[in-house]
Design a protein that fits this description.
This protein is an alpha/beta fold. The protein is built from twelve helices and twelve strands. It folds into three domains: 1-96 and 262-359, 3-Layer(aba) Sandwich (Isopropylmalate Dehydrogenase), CATH 3.40.718.10; 112-121 and 164-257, Response regulator (Rossmann fold, 3-Layer(aba) Sandwich), CATH 3.40.50; 122-161, no CATH class. It starts with a strand and ends with a helix. It binds nicotinamide-adenine-dinucleotide.
Length: 359
Amino acid sequence: MAYRVTFIPGDGTGPEVSEAARRVLEATGVKFEWDIQLAGADVMDQFGTPLPPQVVESIRKNGVALKGPITTPVGSGFRSVNVEMRKALDLYVNLRPAKSYPGVRSRYQNIDLVIVRENTEDLYAGIEFQKDTPEAEKLRRSIQELSGKEIRPHSGISIKPISVEGTQRIVRYAFEYARREGRKKVTAVHKANIMKYSDGLFLEVAREVATAYPDIEFEDRIVDNMTMQLVQKPELYDVLVCPNLYGDILSDLCAGLVGGLGVAPGANIGERAALFEPVHGSAPKYKGQNKVNPTATILSGMLMLRHLGERGAADRLEQAVAGVIAEGKYVTYDFKERPDDLSAVGTKEMAEAIIRKLQ
Ligand code: NAD
C-alpha cells in the first residue's frame, strides 16, 4: 500500500531540495502517493494568501507532510507560513536530531543528539505588548497591583506561559521517542532557579513524567550550564527536552556542532499530523541554480520514514547519504573546503549519487 503524503515544494530553493528528497525517498522502494500542495510567496497572487486553506486540510487528511522551506515575506503583513502551519495543526513537538557524519567539516565527531523542543508555548506564544500602548500601561499597572513589583515605564512586555498540560505532552513525547529509538537518557533543560513558576513548573512536571519511564535515565540541566556542557562534552548527552526558546537556541548550537544547516533535518509533530522539513530556510539567492545542499531535506525524509514505521528503508537511506558524504565526490559546494571548489556538484547530482547507493 502506498503512503499518501502531502508534498509542499516551498519556494526559493525549496522546490529543488524537496524534489531531490522526493526522488530519493521513492528510490528506497517505499511506495508514496504525493498530494502536491502549493504554499508560499509564489502562490500569493493566485490565492491571496501564502497559506491557502487546502494546504492545511490536506495535511490534516493525510496526517504526514514533506515540506521544502518557505520564505516569510518581510513587511507584507503575512505572518510566517511555517508558524501558521504549526499552529493550525497543533504540531507541538519540534524534533531536531544533530548527528555527525564523517566527511562533514566540523570541530566535533561522534555526536548523536536529539533536541525535543516544545513548539507552542513559552515566549513564542505571541502574547506581546508594545511599549507606551494603553494595553501595556494597563498591564504594567495590573502587575504592580498583583505582584507589588514595578515594571519601568516605556517597557515592552512579552509573556512566557508554560502549562502543565503542554509540558506533560512534550516530556512524554521525549521519553516515548527515547524508548522507540533505543536511546538511554533524557535531559530536561530549564532555568528553574530564576523563573520558578514557568521553568520551575517545566522541571517539576518533567520529573513527574519521568517516573513512568524507569528504563530511561532522567536528569536536568540549567540552560546556561547546558550550553557550556554541549560545547565541552556533547558526547555525554542523548535526548534533550526543552521549552520553546531554549530549544530554539540549543538546536542551532547542536546543528553547529555537526556541521551546520546543510545537514540539519527537522520535524514538527502533533497528535494527528507530522510535517517533515529541513531546518534551513529558502536560501532565495540560490533559487533555480541547482546549487544548494539537499541533505537536510533528504534526512528529513529519513525521519518521515521512521515516523511511518519504515525503519529498514530509513536505515538504508541514512547509510546511502552517509556513504555519499564520506566519499566526498558527489557533494555540494558547502561540503567543500572552499565554496568555489569546481569539483562540487549540484543539488540534483548529489541526490542522484544517493539514489545510486540505494540501488
Ligand atoms: P537560509 O537558511 O535560507 O539561508 C542562510 C544561508 O545559509 C544561505 O544564504 C546559504 O548560504 C546557507 N544555506 C541555507 N540552506 C542551505 C543549503 N541547503 N545548502 C547550502 N547552503 C545553505 O536563511 P535566511 O536567509 O535567514 O532565510 C531565507 C528565508 O527562509 C526567510 O524568508 C526565512 O523566513 C525563511 N525560512 C523558512 C524556514 C522554513 O520554511 N521552515 C526556516 C527558516 C527560514
